[in-house]
């Protein structure tokens, strides 16, 4: 009985190891060390680095739907919702081109809106970093949010 258990554990271990090796070497595997939302060219910043950029005057953009932005947002952030990108971009374009830095955020893990918006900005010649893990990371770092209707 002990030999059967040992053999089963060995098969599971070898199978798992082989799967991880294939995942890493195949070029078609899952990104295990980072979010699957991150693609080549995406620049991620953690909450502390993002706060430093905000303090130096970076423009923050909220990629969530405008209704979410109205409820709460990082101080000074402007709405650039993924679902209304073209119209919102046209309104913000002059300000975006003058910005000394741009950081895009959304609802956090599993939300790809900030990545989509940052890539769309990059296609238009505007470099933008993505706040890694979005609002939850910002709040976990102890940074304040604006709430209620924008002023």
Please describe what this structure looks like.
The chain has 151 residues and is of the alpha/beta class. The chain has 2 domains: 1-30; 44-147, Rhodanese-like domain (Oxidized Rhodanese, domain 1). Helix content is 47%, strand content 14%. It contains 6 helices and 7 strands; from the N terminus they run αβαβαββαβαβαβ. The protein has helices spanning 2-25, 47-55, 66-71, 85-98, 113-123, 134-140; strands spanning 44-45, 59-62, 72-74, 78-79, 102-105, 129-131, 145-147. It has a 5-stranded parallel β-sheet. A two-stranded antiparallel sheet has the order 3-7. The mean pLDDT is 87.
- Highest CATH level, the class of the largest domain: Alpha Beta
Oligomeric state, counting identical vs distinct chains: single chain
State the helix count.
Answer: 6
Specify the structural class.
Answer: alpha/beta
Mean pLDDT: 87
What would CATH call the homologous superfamily of the largest domain? Rhodanese-like domain
Architecture (CATH level 2) name of the largest domain: 3-Layer(aba) Sandwich
CATH topology of the largest domain: Oxidized Rhodanese, domain 1
Please indicate the count of domains.
Answer: 2
Question: How large a portion of the residues is in β-strands, by DSSP E?
Answer: 5-15%
Question: Care to count the β-strands?
Answer: 7
Main sheet record? 5 strands, parallel
- Model regions low in confidence, pLDDT < 50 over at least 5 residues: none
């Amino acid at each position: 009985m002990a030999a059967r258990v040992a053999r089963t554990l060995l098969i599971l271990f070898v199978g798992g190891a082989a799967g991880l090796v294939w995942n890493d070497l195949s070029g078609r595997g899952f990104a295990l060390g980072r979010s699957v939302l991150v693609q080549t060219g995406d620049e991620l910043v953690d909450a502390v680095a993002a706060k430093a950029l905000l303090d130096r005057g970076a423009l923050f953009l909220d990629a969530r739907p405008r209704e979410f932005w109205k409820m709460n947002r990082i101080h000074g952030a402007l709405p650039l919702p993924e679902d209304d990108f073209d119209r919102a971009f046209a309104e913000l374009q002059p300000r975006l081109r003058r910005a000394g830095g741009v950081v895009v955020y959304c609802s956090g893990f599993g939300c790809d809106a900030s990545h989509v918006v940052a890539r769309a900005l990059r296609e238009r010649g505007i470099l933008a970093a993505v706040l890694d893990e979005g609002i939850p990371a910002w709040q976990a770092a102890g940074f304040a949010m604006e709430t209620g209707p924008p002023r």
